[in-house]
Amino acid sequence: MEILIIKLGAKGDIVRTLPIALALKKKYPDSKISWLAKNSNKELIENSPYVDSVFVLPYVRNAKGISEHPKIPNKTQKFFDEEVRKFDVLYNFDIDEEATSLADRIQAGKKYGFFSQDGFASAFNLGAEYYLNTLFDDETKKTNKKTYQEMMFMAAELPYKKEHHPIALKEEDKKYAEDFARKNNLKAENLIGIHIGSSPRWPSKFWPAGKIKEFILKAREKGYQILLFAGPDDADKQKEIVSELEQKQVQVYFNDSRNKDLEFASLVNLCKFVVCGDSFALHVSLALKKKTVALFFCTSPEEVEGYGCLKKIVSPRLPDFFPEKQDAYSEELVNSISAEEVLKAIKSFE
């Protein structure tokens, strides 16, 4: 049986869609599972023991911000544009036009998930309709109690058994982390990783710099080491925090904000505890079964599967912003979870 999964991005959603591949391989052990993703997300998928091949759809953005395809090798061009290959089953878990139009074009005997109808995302099957409703109906989104994984399994019409798919780290990435730990004399038993970033789309997803520094000072007083994580969008914020703490002679370790995805994951894997918002770091931490404290300010805590290693701290102001104003910034909102609450949650793991 030839199976195609379409999940192009975002990175965190790819990590929490990987359990689908595990479930499909268990149901169809002799199947060949292919995955279609953006090139930038390929390394998150290609080491999965349940995915046989990864097709990539390269994209670049020109100076005007318009997406365009670079030159694609003939084999890949035929795969996408001439539809010469037919799959037994296709699963599309993306609602963006880029993915839904591909789900329309690629031939398959049976299709699940989402396709494009008159430029709008529509459901191939009844099980996929619920997720669409959570996206386009605020009341459904507010009252939803299902995790993202559960909704994707519904879309695939597979029974959900809280399947967990770890991130498979390459040896080179493990060595990268080992060298980092040795160079900085990190001790895993008391290392807290703090991811300070969030998508620019949701500026209220995590603490501001002042609250992060307050937490770090309190954690250091308790004897914890701190590894401060940032991505490209938060490099300046990371530098500011580290610089100010160094002036107070407070030692903080930090990652390279340009880390590749698996380098980033390998450093997360060093930590005993992880503190983060609803972000890529959260899904990486859970995939690695780290003891995780997640702060929810403006997104749904219900949609995150905890796998028995997650403590959720929900802002008392969340109902005022979720979902109608979740893309707004509020100083009061981002300061509504205290450093003491998070430290208490970490201590409760011990």
Describe the structure.
- With 350 residues, the protein is an alpha/beta fold.
- It has two domains: 2-156, 3-Layer(aba) Sandwich (Rossmann fold); 171-349, Rossmann fold (3-Layer(aba) Sandwich).
- It has helices at residues 11-15, 18-27, 74-82, 97-105, 126-136, 138-143, 148-156, 171-184, 209-221, 235-247, 261-268, 280-287, 318-321, 331-334, 339-349; strands at residues 2-6, 32-37, 53-56, 60-61, 67-68, 86-92, 107-117, 120-123, 191-195, 225-229, 253-254, 273-276, 291-296, 310-314.
- A six-stranded mixed beta sheet has the order 3-2-1-6-7-8. A six-stranded parallel beta sheet has the order 11-10-9-12-13-14, sandwiched between helices.
- Helix 9 (209-221) packs across helix 10.
- The longest helix has 14 residues, at 171-184.
The CATH homologous superfamily of the largest domain is termed: Glycogen Phosphorylase B
Tally the helices.
15
Mean pLDDT level: 92
Helix content: 25-40%
What is the terminal separation in angstroms? 46 Å
Number of β-strand runs: 14
The CATH architecture name of the largest domain reads 3-Layer(aba) Sandwich
Order of helices and strands: EHHEEEEHEHEEHHHHEHEHEHEHEEHHH
